Amino acid sequence: MRAALAVLLAATTATLYALSTSLQALEARRTPRAAALRASLLVGLARRPLWLAGTAAGVAAWPAQAGALSLGSVALVQPALGFGLVALLALGVLVLKEPVGAREVAGTLAIAGAVALLAWAAPSSTGAFTSTGTWVVGGLLVLVGPAPYVLRWTGLGGGLPTSLAAGIAWAWVGLVTALVDQALSGRHWLAALGWALAVAAASWGGLLAEMTSLQTWPATRAIPIAFGLEMLLPAAVAPALTRAPVPHPAAVGVGLACASLGALLLGTSRAVAGAATAPAPTGNAAGVEVG
Asked: How far apart are CA 187 and CA 199, in angstroms?
């Protein structure tokens, strides 16, 4: 029952995140590329009602994600966020009238099958983070938050680096959210507040990188990378960071592989890409180099 509730909350989270991505990316691709990887990109977008509506959906998704992680393990909840791709597919079909082909059917079945398998094979809970695991998660936050600025300063503001940065940041949001749950369950209120602020920092870096990647790169390339890392990276590293045993490691590996395949198939679908982004602007706004 707990696993089923965790999946339900994860699916709700995924749908809200998908709506958030769609609305935010629509506005991001209408902004000058000169703002890429700069705080001014988000400051300018924050003046647009549609982007703010997407942000509200993303903010509403986080408590649902925290609830899912309190009921199920990272190895189950994060791959279940792949249902966000299914939500984008539905949006593309219903609103944009995009056709559904073998790619979309196979991707949906791969994600659904992966989640079903992980509901059986994954640990029932994330488990307590080891002291080393806590330091690793906290230490890498120092890199995740400012990553967009580092990419800009080093001239690596293209689609691939920003997609990787976005995916890693959102993956770390999942891990830090599990630490928020752990602190709350132990009634360590200050620690919970500290980790919640860390979620905000990682989210800032992830959002800035994601908006830039969708602004500068085709969605069919950006989405599979960002979604795939968000779904799979926390599940892959959690066993090394926590004390939770993995009862069926081979089955978990198969489940993660199926989730990865589903993310690849749906992420490269025209229907999903169309729902996630608007056409790039024309004219000088689109022609400014990133930097």
From this structure: 18
